[in-house]
């Protein structure tokens, strides 16, 4: 069966203590309650970087720029309704303090502690890459 590819971009914000920011999806919706990296769908005509900068502003109220986004890895995972292709960036420099504008909660965690938080299945292979990097 053919599946359409959904392009979603995500960001790992890393603080001075090498902790990473995760955000809890609201209950009830798809993957409700799971912890994810901030980000969202790339809109038609948008670059991944522009989409990420927009999403970080909308979701967290922080601003950053393309030069502060470093490619880390990507996720490629078949869900029932679509195939997710998700470039993942690392960002260490931004302005503002993240606040949960669209999520239930935010949490700064050490990469090794990510395994204690239920994440979407697409994200699981990313944890090892983060533990290696940080
Ligand atoms: N932002 C983000 N999305 C992720 C991650 N892992 C993962 O599987 N996803 C999936 C969840 C969603 O299906 C999709 C992101 O779409 P979205 O957040 O813009 O949209 P949504 O499903 O919450 O809501 P909707 O606008 O489709 O109603 O990517 C992740 O780490 N971060």
UniProtKB/TrEMBL annotation:
Cofactor(s) of this protein: Mg(2+)
Gene3D superfamilies: Nucleoside Triphosphate Pyrophosphohydrolase
A molecular function GO annotation: metal ion binding
Keywords: DNA damage, DNA repair, DNA replication, Hydrolase, Magnesium, Metal-binding, Mutator protein
Catalytic activity reported: 8-oxo-dGTP + H2O = 8-oxo-dGMP + diphosphate + H(+); 8-oxo-GTP + H2O = 8-oxo-GMP + diphosphate + H(+)
One Gene Ontology biological process: DNA replication
CDD domains, sorted: NUDIX_MutT_NudA_like
Nudix hydrolase domain residues: 4-134
EC nos: 3.6.1.55
Name assigned to this protein: 8-oxo-dGTP diphosphatase
